[in-house]
Amino acid sequence: METVSSPRVQQMPVKPFLKWAGGKRQLLPYFRDLYPPALKEGRITHYYEPFAGSGAVFFDIVQRYNIQQAFLTDINADLVLTYRIIQRHTAALIEALWVHQKKYLALSAAQRAAYFYAQRELFNKQAGDKMTGANGVARAAQLIFLNRTCYNGLFRVNASGAFNTPVGDYKKPVICDEANLLAVAQLLHNVRIRKMGYAAALKQLPPGSFVYLDPPYRPLSQTARFTAYDAAGFGDAEQARLAQVCRNLDAQGLPFMLCNSATADGFFEKLYKGFTLQHLPARRLINAHAGKRGPVNEIVVTNYTL
Q: Of the candidates 36, 21, 64, which has an alpha carbon nearest to the alpha carbon of residue 187?
């Protein structure tokens, strides 16, 4: 059976093609010690990630282990579209990104800001969930361009669903990372990518499945609610609903690993009582004040013994 990837054939480490608030690339050295033993022993055949984001854990796992089938899902229509465009129309996307990069790097700082806001306005006037063909390629290129040139690479939408992150200050941003995009496309070749909620994505999973969950983080304070990538948000009631889905996975004997912010009120310790909880140090890079971008704890929940 064809697998998603083979660690033996990858010629270069593949990294996420997007910068993403709460991305897990910095935590991968810790995560590798926390993956389930069944994965390391070759007994995991199916991998599910229902909050795809930048896919840092997905890229790490499929480059290290032979997974027969991987499933990436998310409710963010533009994110799902971009994954699909890379998977199916890689060359056209690279060409569109080269156009953005050539134009952008030739501009002055003021001109770059104007170009950014013009692209952001155009992005917000359209809807990406049903785009295909050339329109889909242009939309995915816009998302990657905005992500690579906006402030801190923060994909954030307001209550109306409009992308509202301001322009960043980068001297020479890499808008088109051609080599990495080609490698990403190779890893996505046999991956099923869908726009759907996590509950629907995790119904009736086959034996040999491993689920990694990276939901929107519970804010560390009441003033920290600025990282939403979907207008609907993800409040405490939704966090509790997700915890019940995790308990259902555990009842089926399926290993899961979940990451979230370690809030001071012990919210997740109560919500996931009975499971294994560990705290990991992470560095938040999206605070507007550089002095507040220090280490914070993230919590990792697992239902298996290491």
A: 64
Question: How far apart are the C-alpha atoms of 236 and 240, rounded to whole Å?
Answer: 6
Please give the structure tokens belonging to residue 11: 């010629």
> What pLDDT, on a 0 to 100 scale, did the predictor assign at position 293?
47
Q: How many residues does the chain have?
A: 306
**Token reading at 277:** 């909880």
Contact present, 75 and 216 (Cβ < 8 Å): no
Sequence letter at residue 249: L
12-60 pLDDT, tens digit each: 689 999 987 767 888 999 999 999 999 999 999 999 999 999 999 999 9
Whether the full predicted model's pTM is greater than 0.70, yes or no, is yes
Residues 120, 165: Cα–Cα separation, whole Å = 9
Residue with tokens 């889909």: 136
Euclidean distance between CA atoms 201 and 203, whole angstroms? 6
| Residue 20 φ then ψ, to 5° | -150, 130
Helix axis angle for 109-125 and 133-149, nearest 10°, is 140
